[in-house]
Design brief:
The chain has one domain (about 1-440). Helix 3 crosses helix 8 (about 165-175) and helix 16 packs across helix 17. The protein is globular, with a radius of gyration of 22 Å. The protein has 19 helices and no strands. It is about 75% helix and about 0% strand. It is mainly α. GO terms for molecular function: gluconate transmembrane transporter activity. It is found in: Cell membrane. Keywords: Cell membrane, Membrane, Transmembrane, Transmembrane helix, Transport. Its main location: membrane.
Length: about 450
């Protein structure tokens, strides 16, 4: 009966978000209350939670989840906004296109999406980079869809797989994984996923020659106003360099050494993101003569951009805590272990099912983590791979209930049918290849 209550709770979440269009944070709170009260109806008196315990569980879950993540998420948003507003993303795109030339222009756009996608949140990255795709399409006389899919595949993968994006960062905490190692393994899994869903898949899309919607074409910044290529890359990739570098150094350092202590401190995600934001504010703003007040205004705008995501993550934390406090997580763990399914496949499958039902990759990933996280305890599967498998599943088959689907359709001026054949297939490839990559890595880790 407890498992039926959990199933009904998840179904209620899907209905509230996908059908009734209720605010996702409010939907999570309603589902938590429903779960607590429904479990009380099917349990013995000594197993029930009081009303006070249910509300306290919700508060505890939100606090525990956001306590460790809100700083990283806010700093990540600030850095992404600085990269976008300063023209650093445009400089990276221009520089890579010069290096690769017209013949390999897709690869330059793919790399641009990957570099810019690490600090930029997906929706911001989409809106920022699509006009650049249209500009390149006009210059090269190549179809916009053919050029756009590789870049958007990169943005999607960084959004679903890699810290410091909100969902992967939250999954790292839930699965008790190391953020640096997750980033390194994530890069290994991400590269084939992006290549297959980007340049390889887009070879079949040259027939989609629709002109992009004129409404979404914007003027690009003049080159003389852009930061240098080196400055742009250092500002955008500093979190990756610090997280990956300190993780690799720790593999060589002795646990009792001074080097271990320093690398542990520098590799702390909060310190990494603080240094990245300060570096970005200086390199992309203050050093270029931008007033401090203007730089701070850009960073304040970034907080507004990410506030909804923070609430969604907090709501998912409440659901996870409710599963723990009600002892249902143990029942779920026992049931799932009895299925004798690979935990990576199980996590991917549940995330994919919720993604297809709800439409939100963030909701799919975080909800799945609350269900399957107990499986990691005592399992031989590396927790970083659980993060990546769950993230890959959360990207599965974007369709009409996903905002990204409609953004792609309207920006690229496609029919619903053609959007399914381009965007939805790309997202599916990214998801499936991500799972395959995790399973292969699991053989060696």
């Amino acid at each position: 009966m407890a498992l039926l209550v959990v199933f009904a709770s998840i179904l209620l979440l899907v209905l509230l978000v996908a059908y009734f269009r209720l605010n996702t944070f409010i939907a999570f709170l309603i589902v938590c209350l429903f779960m607590g009260l429904a479990l009380n109806m099917v349990r013995l008196p000594e197993e029930r939670m009081s009303i006070a315990d249910i509300t306290q569980s919700i508060q505890t879950g939100i606090g525990k989840t956001l306590g460790s993540l809100v700083i990283i998420i806010v700093f990540g948003s600030m850095l992404g906004k600085l990269v976008a507003e300063s023209g650093a993303a445009q400089r990276i795109a221009n520089g890579l296109m010069q290096v690769f030339g017209r013949k390999y222009v897709q690869w330059s756009l793919m790399l641009t999406g990957f570099i810019v996608g690490i600090p930029l949140f997906y929706n911001i990255g989409f809106v920022l980079m699509v006009p650049l795709i249209f500009t390149v399409a006009a210059r090269t006389k190549l179809p916009a869809v053919y050029l756009g899919i590789p870049m958007l595949a990169s943005l999607s993968v960084t959004h679903g797989y890699l810290p410091p994006h909100p969902s992967p960062t939250a999954l790292v905490g839930t699965f008790h994984a190391n953020m640096g190692l997750t980033l390194i393994y994530g890069l290994i899994v991400a590269i084939p996923a992006i290549i297959l869903a980007g340049p390889v898949f887009s070879r079949f899309l040259k027939k989609y020659t629709q002109e992009p919607a004129k409404l979404f074409t914007v003027e690009v910044m003049p080159d003389e106003l852009l930061p240098s290529m080196g400055t742009s890359i250092v500002a955008a990739l500093l979190p990756v360099l610090l997280l990956a570098g300190t993780s690799l150094l720790k593999l060589q350092a002795h646990p009792d050494s001074y080097l271990w202590e320093i690398t542990t401190w520098l590799g702390d995600p909060v310190i990494v993101m603080l240094l990245a934001v300060l570096n970005g504010a200086y390199l992309l703003g203050i050093r270029r003569g931008v007033p401090v007040k203007k730089v701070m205004s850009i960073m304040e705008d970034a907080i507004r951009d990410v506030s909804v995501i923070i609430l969604i993550i907090g709501g998912s934390g409440a659901l996870t805590q409710m599963l723990l406090d009600s002892k249902v997580s143990k029942v779920i763990t026992d049931s799932l272990q009895g299925m004798h399914m690979n935990p990576l496949i199980l996590a991917w499958s549940i995330a994919a099912l919720i993604r297809v039902s709800v439409g939100s990759a963030t909701v799919a990933g975080l909800t799945t983590a609350g269900i399957v996280a107990p499986l990691v305890v005592g399992s031989t599967v590396h927790p970083s791979l659980m993060v990546l498998a769950t993230g890959a599943g959360s990207l599965m088959f974007s369709h009409v209930n996903d905002g990204g689907f409609w953004m792609f359709k309207e920006y690229f001026n496609l029919s619903v049918k053609d959007t399914f054949k381009t965007w939805s297939v790309m997202e599916t490839i990214v998801s499936v290849v991500g799972l395959i990559g995790c399973l292969i890595l699991n053989l060696f880790i």
